[in-house]
Here is the input.
Amino acid sequence: MAREYPRTEGFTDVTVLLPVMNETYSLVQTVDTILGSSKKDVREILVVVADKTTPESLAEVEKLRARLGDLIAVHKQTLPFLGGAMREAFDLARGSHTLMMASDLETDPALVPKLIEAARANPDAIATVSRWVEGGGFHGYNSVKLASNLVFQKLFALLYWTRLSDMTYAYRIFPTRLVQAIRWEELRHPFLFETLIKPLRLGVRVIELPGVWRARTEGASQNTFARNFEYFRIGVRVRLAPPERLLREQQGKAA
Ligand SMILES: Nc1nc2c(ncn2[C@@H]2O[C@H](COP(=O)(O)OP(=O)(O)OP(=O)(O)O)[C@@H](O)[C@H]2O)c(=O)[nH]1
Ligand SMILES: [Mg+2]
Here is the structure.
């Protein structure tokens, strides 16, 4: 019989993942907004830093740690890039659920309570934010990128035969056991898409909530437009892979 993904029966608390490269006040505002609304549900905020994280960002992380103590955990990544940061963080998460977002304010931290409520009501599902449904949107998104994004979403919704409208926005809450059971491949930004399509192929239910994307006001993205074409490769490969091959040999352990 085909192996199945491990089920999650309840929400107890959430590990919030915040990757940081060049954010300062955006990071602090993200943390304070989350704790202001949802502290009782937060197991820890796991900040992931890299060799290239700026000294200004590292200083803000240290200040947060001094101010908030155990609520802030810091991990220095070994694998490279954004996917590498998230993959290591998935294995360190201790909450029943793991929330993936950014620290540049492009993932509106005011939506965190809604994501937590969705996870509490549907603990075995993924709740993800969509910019393409009523109530969602884009502010300051380049128009060529916007058109390409829409075409990409429609194409892959058809290929995966799903009603989901936004499969590439990296703002979502997962059952932690699920993300620890999957065998991840990507290291760069296509990882963000991989975190939705692999669960879809495993039969995980995915719920969408509306959200507005706003361009960051400090620092710069680590992604380049040309690299967006790499999303096609993982999109097609995962569609063709047998679902049981998407799981690690030993669930919950490093593969
Ligand atoms: N620790 C760590 N954080 C990263 C890395 N790359 C990006 N980040 C952070 O992850 C978040 C999202 O990355 P961005 O580079 O802004 O990418 P994006 O907004 O998803 O992509 P675009 O829409 O193409 O701009 C930001 O808070 C970044 O600072 C990385 O290699 N390591
Ligand atoms: Mg960004």
Q: What stands out?
A: Residues 14-246 form a domain with the Spore Coat Polysaccharide Biosynthesis Protein SpsA; Chain A fold (CATH 3.90.550.10). Residues 143-159 form the longest helix (17 residues). Strands lie at 14-20, 42-49, 72-76, 97-100, 126-130, 137-139, 172-175, 206-210, 212-214. The chain has a mean pLDDT of 96.
